[in-house]
Design brief:
The complex is a heterodimer of chains A (100) and B (99). Chain A is an alpha+beta fold. Chain A contains three helices and six strands; from the N terminus they run βααβββββα. In chain A, the strands form two sheets. A three-stranded antiparallel sheet of chain A has the order 2-3-6. In chain A, strands 4-5 form a two-stranded antiparallel sheet. Chain A is extended. By secondary structure, chain B is an alpha+beta fold. Helix content of chain B is 46%, strand content 26%. In chain B, the strands form two sheets. A three-stranded antiparallel sheet of chain B has the order 1-2-5. A two-stranded antiparallel ribbon of chain B has the order 3-4. Classes of the chains: A alpha+beta (100), B alpha+beta (99). The interface between A and B is large, with 57 and 56 residues. β1 of chain A pairs parallel with β1 of chain B, so a sheet runs across the interface.
């Protein structure tokens, strides 16, 4: 199964009786949008118990067109990396041991 | 941005939703994502990214303190792949600064 925004809003509606369908959809959308905005503005995002989204600045480096072998520079860029929290890593390992 | 800040920003933005509901929702979104990954399910959020599990095979290693040799246990580790929109937006400020 794949978890999507639709499934997340369904969960919210079920668990929180005061939350309407439109509000739940909006909340899920804005949750991810706020994370995108923070990262876009150069802020790292730390969600306790889940993990951290961190920004890394990469320098320009030589790259290659895999088809032609031609050398072309890969431009300097900023990228997002995700570092799962110890809690999440442990939870995944424990759940897998149970199912084995 | 910590979770408390995220809740604060959402509260400012979504005036029509109560603070308690926003707080509960954020906690539920995060715990649902943890549960899904733990159950071996993928997470796919369009224009944000996807989370899945990567297998780590057992390998020979040693304890750097004692020098004792050991075999690591095979395990799964969560992995995040940023979506196209997130990649572009994160890089947009850097691009602007260059021009």
């Amino acid at each position: 199964m794949v978890l999507t925004k639709l499934e997340l809003s369904r969960k919210l509606i079920k668990a929180i009786p005061t939350l309407g369908r439109n509000e739940a959809t909006l909340l899920v959308e804005e949750f991810f949008e706020e994370i995108r905005l923070a990262l876009e503005n150069g802020e790292d995002v730390k969600l306790a118990g889940f993990g951290n989204f961190e920004l890394r600045d990469k320098k320009q480096r030589p790259g290659r067109n895999p088809k032609t072998g031609e050398v072309i520079p890969v431009s300097a860029r900023r990228v997002v990396t995700f570092h799962p929290s110890q809690k999440l890593k442990t939870k995944i390992i424990e759940n897998n041991e149970q199912s084995n | 941005m910590l979770k408390s800040k995220l809740i604060e920003r959402l509260t400012d933005k979504l005036r029509q939703v109560s603070v308690a509901d926003i707080e509960q929702s954020i906690n539920l979104i995060i715990s649902t994502m943890s549960e899904s990954l733990s159950a071996g399910d993928r997470i796919e959020i369009r224009d944000f990214g996807s989370f899945n599990l990567h297998y780590r095979a057992p390998r020979n290693a040693h304890n750097p303190k004692t020098g004792k040799r050991l075999m690591t246990t095979p395990k799964y580790r969560p992995h995040f792949k940023p979506g196209k929109a997130l990649r572009e937006r994160v890089n947009s400020q850097v691009k602007k600064a260059e021009m």
